[in-house]
Write a structure and sequence with these properties.
- With 758 residues, this protein is α/β, with parallel strands linked by helices.
- Among the domains are: 50 residues, no CATH class; 203 residues, P-loop containing nucleotide triphosphate hydrolases (Rossmann fold); 139 residues, no CATH class; 133 residues, Ribonuclease Inhibitor (Leucine-rich repeat, LRR (right-handed beta-alpha superhelix), Alpha-Beta Horseshoe), CATH 3.80.10.
- 45% of the residues lie in helices and 10% in strands.
- Strand 12 and strand 13 form a beta hairpin.
- Helix 14 packs parallel to helix 22, helix 19 packs across helix 21 and helix 25 crosses helix 26.
- The longest helix is centred in the middle third of the chain and has 19 residues.
Length: 758
């Protein structure tokens, strides 16, 4: 026991036994492990072979082994598209690492999937409640599948004895009758039927709840009755809230995934917030290589070319990447490059055609035309989109006259875009293979309904102006759609709008003929384009204006973009309008240039453009500004935003100098951006010539001493900090959490105090 390698040798032995799934240890070894545990040999969880030093009863080991075997089989294959035979592929063969970041605390860092519930180097214990956010199709569910599979196969996280992965989609199908947490677990995982109440309390347990955004539970944290016993019966909603709050199995860990808009459903504070960002450029190539082998390079080269840049950007979404690759794999061999899809709408149009052609190859008897079935699917897509539903029931299908069993036999179209799944109690539920497919079919249904009957299905939406039926043209539909989108929450109708505009174009109308649609009369886009230009000019909410530029791209209008590029080439940007600044943001975002350094002074009018260029500032890693007082609040908001967690360097040098109508050397008081609440997201911050106040030093000290501070380089040159400010700042520098490596300051008092204390 006195040997220096004593403890690590024991962990090695334990690791070997675990990897080989030994069901029992020899009796002396069991007692020895118990002895070590009670004598408190200290070891940080997550190190030393990734296994906990804990005695496991034979019953726990037996249940654990059976659960692992079940989950290993359940998670070994990944279904791409639908779950019909032949659509699955080995998870380990196709899985591509996702870019996941830890955020929400002001300190962004990349985090490995298998470390998502482990303590970081500076943390004493693992996070008990973890939230992972990400947009639809970004890979949250696949990440959960991979995490579970790695645990089940013994590849990672063996310090966890039991993992119970649930989906809110499955939980929704449970009838609302009281049950216990133990019953809820064993109903879904019968492999642990033999676990006793004491086994749950003594084991390390992780509950995973995937898809909070799909939850139909009220999650009433305030009014649900408390529940502390896993055999006590309660509603499923009450079980969930008590488990998340830590009343039930208070030592258990909880991992929840969700789309960002639904994160607020849970008011409980999370110990860790992460975000799935999807694929970076290297991962896009890796995925294509795994999926298409020799064809991968041709597909990637096509997407990286200037004409298809916007499509390549969207490929950070794994599901979109799959759809694009599926289409290009089919088209590249037989289609000239100038006829390949260049817009998102064209890509989805070809995807729909490919599914229809596959149906024809099966030579099934035609019970209904392709158009009839697609319109039924479109009606379902639109009505459920209006309700905010991604999941729907058999009754929802029947309301749209869709017989899925018949459709599965007679048309490949339906089964290729709708997923059929079974819930916990074998209740069938359905969804489109991805939200974007639902949005595409909804747009097609709305446009075709208007073309055939002049009925504007968007008329019932709030904020939408509607003309009388006799006066309606497709322009009125377009304007209604723009109004609906601009009034919607968190971009809910953004892609629908792009699809609607794209489907109105002659090229896509010609493609629709291939699946039985009659092309509409060709009309000029000028009125629609003019309407969008007016909206862009008035818009201050930048993300919405960027989406309108994507819509102009679908309409084939590049006029604003071309004017901005002309200004850039001439070097004269002093006379461009607000709409042109938004166009500049769009140009920079879709350019193939490395988004590394962005210097606002190159564009002369920092005050006028900052708000419209916020999306660009989010994308660049190094930002240089020269601002006046008018812009300080904008920068405060920007620094406070978790959406710019990739910012590494921010330069606010010479704030307020030389701006017309603004006094020189305007004070920048950092209380404006609340840096004391752990939101300094950059690692390099220059505050040269900012005439910092004493309160600013207090906030800086608070930020430097924050456990989540990421600031490593701070420039305070040419600021008269005064004695009180220097002392406040020094208190932050002394903190053990301070990560600062370089401090620039011309104030000798600061360095004198540092030298005295050293």
């Amino acid at each position: 026991r006195n040997h220096r390698l004593y403890t690590s040798s024991l962990f090695t032995i334990k690791s070997v036994l675990l990897v080989n799934t030994t069901l029992w240890f020899s009796l002396p070894f069991q007692f020895f492990f118990r002895f070590v545990k009670h004598n408190s040999i200290q070891r940080k969880e997550g190190h030393c072979c990734n296994c906990s030093f804990i005695y496991l009863s034979e019953n726990i080991q037996r249940c654990q082994t059976k659960l692992k075997s079940y989950l290993q089989i359940k998670t070994q294959n990944l279904f791409q598209g639908t779950k019909e035979a032949g659509s699955s592929i080995s998870l380990n063969k196709i899985y591509t690492e996702l870019y996941i970041t830890q955020g929400g605390s002001g300190d962004e860092r990349k985090i490995d999937l298998n470390d998502i519930v482990k303590p970081l180097a500076e943390e004493e214990s693992r996070p008990q409640r973890v939230l992972t956010k990400g947009i639809a199709g970004i890979g949250k569910t696949v990440a959960v599948q991979k995490f579970t599979h790695d645990w089940a196969t013994g590849a990672a996280n063996q310090n966890i004895q039991f993992i119970f992965p649930f989906t809110f989609r499955d939980l929704n199908s449970i009838k609302d009758e009281p049950r216990s947490l133990k019953d809820l677990i064993t109903d879904n995982f019968e492999e642990v039927n033999d676990l006793e109440r004491s086994d749950y309390n003594s084991s390390s347990v992780l509950f995973i709840f995937d898809g909070l955004d799909e939850s139909k539970f009220p999650l009433d944290f305030e009014n649900n009755k408390g529940c502390r016993n896993i055999t006590q019966t309660a509603t499923v909603d009450a079980l969930l809230t008590n488990l998340i709050q830590g009343n039930l199995l208070h030592k258990a860990s909880i991992w929840i995934t969700t789309r960002p808009a639904a994160a607020s459903k849970i008011p409980v504070e999370f110990n860790r917030v992460t975000e799935v960002r999807g694929f970076n450029d290297e991962q896009k190539e890796e995925y294509s290589q795994k999926k298409f082998g020799d064809k991968a390079q041709k597909i990637i080269s096509h997407l990286q070319s200037k004409l298809f840049r916007s499509l390549y950007i969207m490929c950070h979404i794994p599901m979109f990447c799959w759809i694009v690759a599926t289409v290009l794999e089919s088209l590249l061999a037989n289609t000239q490059e100038n006829k390949l899809p260049r817009t998102v709408t064209e890509m989805y149009m070809h995807f729909l055609i490919i599914q229809t052609q596959r149906k024809r190859e099966k030579r099934y008897q035609k019970e209904e035309t392709d158009k009839d079935l697609i319109m039924k699917l479109g009606k379902l897509a639109f009505e459920q989109l209006q309700k905010g539903n991604l999941i729907f029931s058999k009754e929802d299908l029947q309301d749209c006259k869709i017989d899925l069993e018949q459709a599965a036999v007679y048309s490949g179209v339906c089964t290729q875009v709708i997923r059929k799944e079974h819930g916990l109690y074998r209740q069938d539920c359905y969804s489109f293979i991805h939200l974007t497919v639902q949005e595409f079919l909804a747009a097609l249904y709305v446009l075709e309904t208007f073309t055939e009957s002049r009925d504007n299905l968007l008329a019932s939406s709030r904020g939408v102006r509607v003309q009388t039926k006799a006066k309606r043209s497709v322009v009125s539909l377009h304007e209604s759609a723009v109004d609906l989108t601009l009034n919607s929450y968190q971009g809910r109708w953004d892609l629908f709008l792009r699809f609607l505009f794209g489907l109105s174009q002659d090229k896509n109308q010609e493609l629709l003929q291939k699946i039985g649609f009659t092309p509409s009369q060709s009309q000029s886009n000028m009125e629609t384009i003019s309407y969008i230009h007016k909206k862009i000019k008035k818009l201050l909410y930048t993300d919405k204006s960027i989406n309108l530029f994507y819509c102009l791209n679908e309409l084939g209008d590049q006029s604003l973009v071309e004017q901005v590029q002309k200004y850039q080439s001439s070097g004269d940007v002093s006379k461009i309008s607000p709409s042109h600044w938004s166009a500049l943001a769009f140009v920079l975002l879709v350019s193939d240039e490395n988004l590394d350094v962005f210097d606002l002074k190159d564009y002369d009018r920092s005050d006028a453009v900052l708000e419209r260029l916020v999306p660009v500032l989010k994308a660049f890693s190094y930002c240089i500004t020269r601002l006046s007082l008018m812009c300080c609040s904008d920068w405060a908001s920007l620094l406070h935003s978790n959406s710019i967690t990739n910012k590494r360097t921010v330069v606010l040098a010479d704030v307020g100098t030389g701006a017309q109508g603004v006094p020189p050397r305007v004070k920048l008081d950092l209380i404006l951006n609340n840096v004391q609440t752990n939101v300094v997201l950059c690692t390099f911050l220059r505050l040269r010539d900012c005439q910092l106040s004493e309160r600013s030093c207090e906030d800086l000290a608070s930020a430097l001493s924050s456990q989540s501070s990421s600031l490593k380089d701070l420039d305070l040159s040419n600021n008269d900090l005064q004695d009180s400010g220097v002392k406040l700042l020094f208190s932050g520098l002394r903190s053990p959490h301070c990560r600062l490596e370089t401090l620039r300051s011309g104030d000798t008092r600061l360095f004198r105090i540092i030298n005295i204390n050293m």
